[in-house]
Structure prediction request, 254 residues.
Amino acid sequence: MADTTQELIQAFLYIIAVWLSSVAVTMLFDRVAPFKRRPVSFPSPRREAILGLCLIPLSVCLMMLFRFAFASVLSVITESETYNLEMTFWVLIVRGIFIAPFIIALLIRHQSPATIGLSRHNLILSVFLGLILSSVTVVTYALVFSKAIVIDSELLSSYFYFFVTSLLAVGFVEEAMFRGYLQLRLTAWLGARRGWILTAIVFTVLHAGQSITGLVSVFITGLVFGWIMKKSENIVGLSLWHAFMDWVWILYRP
Prediction:
């Protein structure tokens, strides 16, 4: 019981430290190397935002149907303790199904990747910020949990595959869908503040099934991600940082 309480306290301190440091670092970064403001506009923001909200449940349904259709294959693969090429392939396929409706919507509506925050606009600054925030996250985890990075030579390929999965299947897909597609359209329709908050709410709803504490954590994380998106207007750095936030758990092995 004492160990569980200590772990919860450490997890709370870790996430709070990451939130506060990420906001502070972003504010400082924006002062030293200011992001250029170039808000994305849409001919019909309301229609675009409603479409984005409708695409979320469609994506969830498609992904669940795919998981059901290939349940036997996926169950065997996910039982593996380490990531490998086969697992990475299937995870990317599942997440590809998840983001597919958004990609199709972009193609049908003849909208460029810039309308989801994927462009050369603030790209270099976004990447640098993402790397800095990733480094802060890794160091913060080490300090709070009093752990050192342990690289097991037998698991080197697993580290690589897990990072690829974290970056492409989780970091990029979620940032492109939520901070890119959805937030840009909601803010164009409802205004910066309401669009930002509503995006974080939708992001939290998609993580239903967690504890109340977990959902609060997801909501605040969504707010932090969304706030940084408002600053940088580019999802590349956010995708990188998102990937490192997931990857950090495998870097620190018992």
User: Anything to note?
Assistant: The chain has a mean pLDDT of 89. Residues 24 and 75 are 42 Å apart (CA to CA).
